[in-house]
Amino acid sequence: TLGGLIFDLMLGFSLSHAVLNAPFAQNGWAVSRDLANMLFIFILLAIAIATILQISSYGAKSLLARLVIVALLLNFSLFITRVVVDVSNVTARLFYNGISGGTATTNVLDGEKTALTASAFSGKNFDAPPKSISVGLVASFNPQKLISVDSFKEWADKGKGMGTLFFIYLFATGINLVAAWVLVSIAMLFVVRVAVIWFLMAVAPLAFIAMILPKTQSWASRWWGELFSKSFSIAVFLFFLWIIAAFTSSPFLTETFKTAVSSDVGIFNIVVIVALQFAILIVMLLIAKKTTMSMAGSIGGMSLNIGNKLAGGALGLLAGGV
């Protein structure tokens, strides 16, 4: 329950407007903007000295054109950053809304309400209480049925020994712990995403001004790569999660194991059935997590290459007209 709650809340929070409206990021951006404005003086001195020394990579014409563009865009750096993040969130919400689930304040085990209520998410920074996607995922293999009171009574009535019951309870405990670990580890991806985006928003002016000089352009490239990578990672993961949720909620799994579960097939057969359903879900989630991390990096690199070509073309046209 705790692992699922952390997963649901961090997923919902990562898609909320709170990420874009964080006071820390906005205050940090203001400080970085003021610092970047002061750095313009030193950049002009660097261009002047490089021109006197006739350093070819510091051509005054192209660097001044780049400086003018950055000076115009610098004050819009936070807006541009938020647009990238917002586009990724809108894309992710297309898949998020397609995944069925209740509110994240619902207890996974018995449907009771937790201390986290919908009022905790009210306000302009939150769109709505996050839905409980984890409930639907865990319900696909329902490990709680192994340790429910009804199961205990049924197995006890069949005269099963304490050793058998101990094994079943130990197995069920292991399944729940692994499921909780997977959900929390995925939730950490969302935590890292939010933290990195806040930092990128705070230093956006410095990243923009780093695009001027040839020696600092690699810093700006890393910033753009991280921005696109972290922003769109959640959209990539939710695409896979949407597929996983559709698969686990489809009649395929339920119909495949329906006869075995409903009939008197023995305790260990039920354990095997739960283990197989559990393994399918966990493996799919781990594959989605690994693929997301890989594809997010590719998205960042691809976006960076496209951005560099567009920026280079625009600067070339401007420099040619100066």
Helix fraction by DSSP (H/I, runs of at least 4): over 70%
Task: Give the SSE order as H and E letters.
Answer: HHHHEEHHHHHHH
Mean pLDDT: 74
Dominant shape: elongated
Sheet with the most strands: spatial strand order = 1-2
Total DSSP E strands? 2
Using the CA coordinates, give the radius of gyration: 26 Å
Largest sheet: 2 strands, antiparallel
Contiguous low-pLDDT stretches (5 residues minimum) are 103-126
Oligomer: single chain
Please indicate the percent range of residues in DSSP E strands (runs of 2 or more).
under 5%
Structural class: mainly alpha
Ends: how far apart?
Answer: 63 Å
Number of helical segments with 4 or more residues = 11
Question: What does this protein look like?
Answer:
- 75% of the residues lie in helices and 1% in strands.
- It has helices spanning 2-14, 23-52, 60-74, 77-96, 133-139, 149-157, 162-202, 204-209, 217-248, 251-262, 267-321, and strands spanning 102-103, 131-132.
- It has a two-stranded antiparallel ribbon.
- The protein is mainly alpha-helical and 322 residues long.
Structural features:
322 residues; mainly alpha; two-stranded antiparallel sheet; 75% helix
Summarize the structure.
The chain contains eleven helices and two strands.
Strand and helix map with partners:
Layout (H helix, E strand, L loop, with lengths): L1 H13 L8 H30 L7 H15 L2 H20 L5 E2 L27 E2 H7 L9 H9 L4 H41 L1 H6 L7 H32 L2 H12 L4 H55 L1
